[in-house]
Write a structure and sequence with these properties.
Distance between the termini: 82 Å
Radius of gyration: 41 Å
Structural class: alpha+beta
Helix content: 25-40%
Shape: elongated
Number of helices: 19
Length: 877
């Protein structure tokens, strides 16, 4: 286009002065910046003063125009809003539905959609709306509203509505402008009011979001809602039975439909394994996830968090408009500004009311003077209007010393408008009562102005009392433990190895099968020349010829210990070493020998729990060697780093090495802690120590509903909120309980041992009124019975009962012995009687040496390579 204009100018030089060329840079500067400013200020970003975007403000103003207490068709409200909003009806209707779904400002009727399922609202001609009582209370006050002309100049619309509540934080806000966006998360109604009160009282406060969809959220990195913050939100998932999970709340920003789609996609990709999924959502969310038999529900829950939309991450960004400019501000400052703005609006409202009351008092006093002193008679002889005004003015002067302002001509005109009927029925006492009432209201307004902060606090407390019912927090605040995807992913493919050629991969189906793996796993490989490499699972990867060991690699696995004997160089001495591999650089080759050329591994084994076997060394007959055969116990070798040289075995030529005796673990029992903050087990020393666990040890869990079970201490285990006992299980230690039998309406005592490991059983009756009173895992527990006072009788003294003497150990299904027939007020556990517990004896108690506590479970290590692998070689070189 510009080239055509230049050609035209060359052909017609006389028109040169009339042509103007606008360069693209100039167009961009003038037009694009105007457009960007318009989108930012007029469409996408809310104002800090009232928390509304322009379309929302115009909707609320239109609803106030139409408000008569009855419902209006949304289509009618949308049409009315178009007088103020210069855009199509669709954008207005969508914005109105979003406000209505937040259930705060609009009282809705009809199908307004469902934020849980993602169902859209019905057409605007079918649904109705009116302003809520809350909106009428806190959003509107024409007397303190600043007005401006609408876009076509035909009407007046508010610059900002006088909202006296932190509405922006309550509803949240999201918008994308040009080069700018905002994402303010919704917060809890009651918590916002409490925070406003604390701010007015000069106290510190903190705010975290609360989502209408519920769920669980970790706000530890919220960063006050500023850029760079992050909120992790999870669905609420519980175990219905051993093969069924139920999702009852969804993360904010997702729906049941998108959640189910993400679960099905993860299942199709092999990340998780489910049998089927049912959506029973109606008023409340209920998604049933059915699992194949034998699949761990706890691991599946973690897998849902790791691979589906059951866990999402939200990045807040606090951006608002202030003085026609974007302002990046945190939610704490937003609340402070909103609260201060509310105080200012309350002050303006009080001042206006005070002025109105004073004006009413002024005229009521003038009216009394005018009538009581018969000033109206002074105008009978006057023939002109000016004479009438002057006569009234003269007649009032002797009686107006107590008035608070001078009399104006307008006041006198109002007096002349009083009807004769009113003068004739004038009651001095009633007039004085009205003046007294106005004086009381004036005093009240002045008191509120003098104690403005107290008045504002009372205002917020009134809002909480009137509108806070049913607005309790929905999202549970938790701190999440990170889910290691490699530990919960389903092993959906098979790993193969070609040892001689040095290839590993999932496509080598004609070669040796190693184990099941997933496409996100790392694989650790050892070769006969003493090299080690960790690489990603792929269809086919070359790692080095003569592979002697391959398995799935677990990061930070300190319990898997590798035992190795290698020859240093072609004819050098043999060394023995033990090491763990806890970290490495992927696809980098590590040399585990001394680095000499032609070094060779003579013996190798991988031991999931630090086992140390005994091997027999055979030497070649050479020269005057007398001892050609002896045993070496790996338990005598200290575990060191993988780069250590090792201990000398022999400087002579080794013929072969044979496994003589399998070993036991040389590691200490694994210490396990329970972190109550994240409600998970760990081996990192966080929380309370549960105990030291060997391979066969289990954890005892007792719930408030009378269910008991023992579990393997897996770090992926999820725990229910009604758990009351969790400790290391001692099989011969009895459990003592006192419970109320709902069917017999009596209290019973029972003591029992757990006979079925891993099975969840109930030890109280299944009657709906039955309940567990106290439970103890002490050897000799003592309970105190506090009796209720019966009418006409003295209260019985408290009874102390040794449960050990009261009843012997019976089966878990036994009814137990009746505690008492008297009415019981409560039952308390007292300090147990002294008892010396028998010492636990294990086959592997005699350890060779102490090593540091090592993480990762036996089950995990078995998944990474199958059984402990022993490799023996004859050195024929």
């Amino acid at each position: 286009m510009i080239d055509e204009e230049n050609d035209d100018l060359n052909n017609h030089p006389e028109e040169e002065s009339q042509e103007t060329i606008t360069r693209v840079t100039g167009m961009y500067k003038d037009w694009f910046l105007d457009y960007a400013s318009y989108v930012i200020l007029e469409r996408a970003v809310p104002a800090i003063e009232d928390g509304f975007k322009p379309v929302q403000r115009r909707i609320m103003h239109s609803m106030k125009d139409l408000d008569d207490g009855r419902y209006n068709k949304v289509a009618n409200i949308v049409g009315h809003t178009m007088q103020y909003h210069p855009h199509g009806d669709a954008s207005i209707a969508d914005a109105m539905v979003q406000i209505g779904q937040k259930d705060l400002l609009i009282d809705t009727q009809g199908n307004w959609g469902n934020i849980l399922t993602g169902d859209s609202a019905a057409a605007s001609r079918y649904i109705e709306a009116r302003l809520s009582k809350f909106a009428l209370d806190v959003v509107f006050n024409p007397k303190i509203t600043e007005w401006q002309a609408s876009y076509d100049g035909r009407r007046k619309e508010p610059v900002n509505l006088p909202v006296m509540f932190p509405l922006l934080l309550a509803q949240g806000g999201e918008g994308i402008a040009v080069g700018l966006s905002t994402k303010i998360l919704p917060h809890n109604f009651i918590e916002l009011i409490d925070a406003s009160v604390k701010h007015l009282q000069g106290k510190r406060f903190s705010l975290v979001p609360d989502f209408p969809t519920g769920g669980e959220a970790d706000f530890s990195n919220y960063n006050d809602g500023l850029r760079g913050g992050r909120v992790r939100v999870r669905a609420k998932i519980s175990q219905m039975d051993k093969n069924t999970l139920v999702i009852t709340e969804v993360p904010f920003g997702t729906t049941t439909s998108t959640l189910i789609d993400s679960i099905l996609k993860a299942n199709d990709k092999g990340k998780i394994k489910i049998k089927k999924i049912e959506d029973n959502t109606a008023a409340e969310v209920e998604i049933l996830v059915h699992l194949p038999s034998g699949l761990s529900p706890d691991k599946t829950i973690d897998a849902l968090y790791a691979f589906t939309s059951c866990e999402t991450s939200i990045s807040p960004l606090g951006c608002v408009i202030e003085d026609n400019k974007p302002l990046f501000v945190g939610v704490t400052e937003m609340l402070r500004r909103s609260t201060d703005n509310t105080v200012d609006l309350l002050k303006q409202e009080l001042e206006i009311k005070l002025g109105e009351f004073e004006e009413q008092w002024h005229f009521a006093s003038l009216e009394r003077i005018f009538i009581e002193n018969r000033v109206y008679r002074d105008i009978e002889e006057e023939e002109t209007w000016e004479g009438v005004i002057a006569a009234i003015d003269t007649g009032l002067k002797p009686h107006i010393k107590h008035l608070k302002r001078a009399i104006t001509e307008e006041d006198i005109v109002r007096l002349t408008e009083i009807r004769i009927k009113r003068i004739s029925k004038f009651d001095i006492d009633k007039a004085q009562q009205k003046i007294d009432a106005l004086e009381a209201q004036i005093a009240e307004m002045k008191h509120h102005l003098e104690h403005l902060i107290d008045y504002a606090i009372a205002y917020f407390k009134r809002l909480k009392k009137e509108y806070g019912a049913g607005r309790e927090r929905k999202t549970e605040i938790k701190i999440f433990d990170d889910v290691d995807a490699t530990k919960v992913v389903i092993r959906n493919t098979k790993l193969y190895v070609n040892r001689e050629e040095g290839f590993i991969g999932t496509s080598l189906k004609r070669d040796e099968y190693v184990c099941d793996c997933s496409d996100i796993d790392d694989i650790i490989v050892f070769t006969q020349d003493g090299k080690m490499m960790v690489t990603k699972v792929d269809s086919k990867t070359f790692v080095g010829k003569d592979i002697i060991y391959v398995a799935v690699f677990k990061k930070k696995d300190k319990r898997t210990i590798y035992n190795m004997i290698y020859r240093d160089g072609k004819s050098g001495p043999a060394y023995i070493k033990r090491f763990a591999v806890t970290s490495m650089t992927r696809d980098r080759e590590y040399d585990l020998t001394n680095g000499s050329k032609n070094s060779k591994v003579l013996y190798f084994s991988a031991n999931p729990n630090g086992e140390a076997e005994v091997v027999t060394i055979h030497l070649r007959q050479a020269g005057s060697i007398k001892k050609l055969k002896w045993d070496i116990d790996f338990a005598d070798i200290i575990i060191k780093g993988r780069s250590s040289k090792g201990n000398l075995v022999t400087k002579y030529s080794v013929k072969r090495i044979e496994l003589k005796e399998k070993g036991v673990s040389t590691l200490k029992p694994r210490k396990i802690w329970f972190d109550d903050t994240v409600e998970r087990l760990n081996v990192d020393g966080r929380g309370e120590l549960v105990g030291e666990f060997r391979g066969e040890d289990r954890i005892l869990i007792i719930k408030q509903n009378g269910l008991v079970k023992t579990i393997i201490p897996e770090l992926t285990t999820h725990f229910d909120s009604d758990m009351i006992v969790m400790e290391k299980w001692i099989p011969k230690k009895p459990i003592s309980a006192v419970y109320y039998n709902g069917e017999k309406e009596l209290y019973y005592v029972k003591r029992f041992l757990i006979e079925n490991e891993g099975k969840e059983e109930s030890f109280i009756s299944d009657h709906p009124d039955s309940q567990l009173e106290v439970v103890s895992t002490d050897w000799r527990p003592v309970a105190e019975v506090v009796f209720a006072k019966e009418r006409g009788k003295d209260r019985k003294d408290n009874l102390e009962v040794s449960l050990e003497d009261f009843i012997s150990v019976k089966g878990i299904t036994a009814l137990g012995n009746q505690l008492t027939k008297d009415k019981v007020n409560q039952i308390n556990l007292l300090d147990p009687l002294p008892y010396e517990a028998p010492e636990e004896v294990h086959a592997d108690d005699l350890e060779v040496f102490d090593e540091e506590d090592l993480s990762a479970s036996n089950q995990e290590s078995s998944e990474s390579g199958g059984k402990s692998q022993k490799t023996l070689f004859d050195d024929d070189d």
